[in-house]
Design goal:
With 100 residues, the chain is mainly alpha-helical. Helix content is 52%, strand content 4%. It has a two-stranded antiparallel ribbon with strand order 1-2.
Length: 100
Amino acid sequence: TVSFVPLLAKEGSRLGVGSEGSRGGLLEHGSNVVLTLAELYDDKKCKKVLEELRDLDLLKKEDIQNFDLLHHFLADGCAQRFEMLAAWDPDSLITARCSI
């Protein structure tokens, strides 16, 4: 389940999985797990995963703008994820690229 993402990313990072800077395969090119969290329906679980990744320093504040995460988490059912990221990086609300 999605709950295992932080554990797998932490162990992947420890073992050097993925390319340099992919944080244990979490941000591998063509397979960005953080963006995949926008496609899942359990907002509460996905928010918890994002918080755990942040606490493990595997999700960084600059990722919000670098990967345009607020735009991806504007989808229906992503309110908790959006609010968590917006609260963590309020400046991203100004710089977010949204096509409404």
